[in-house]
Amino acid sequence: MIEKRKYMCPTCGTKTEVETNHWGEVYSGCKNCLAGILYCIEPIAIDERNGWDKILVKVEHYRINVSTEEGYADYKVIEDRNKHLVCAAFINPQFSTRMKEIGKRSEGLITLYKPTQWKGQYVSSIGRLHDWEETIYPNEAIKEGYYIDFLGNEIRV
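Predicted structure:
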């Protein structure tokens, strides 16, 4: 049955009601920060998430101008560190807003829940995250993104 349920944007915290037939993620998008995913905050959904395995990780956000020697060297370190990962890159302008929100919300440790069915993607306390994600800007010298530092932890599948 389709009902109105309470949802929250994990990126900016905006709460809204969504008409849906389940208690999982919905992809209708946040009207405030344009993040693409909302999490159900009804008690049944919160109880289910509380039963998931979780670990604490750090999200390393960066914004670098690679046209400078220092910027290029800093970005090369990030590339080398993450070369074993597939970088999810998005051109859509809404992702620059998402990056700014992730940068604000990723201070300190965040909770990472079980992986999704797609390799390299996770449900977290600040929204769906990739192992490594970048926004593509028209100015190719600007590199902005984040990567997950697992801090030596492993997440059980």
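Summary: The radius of gyration is 17 Å.
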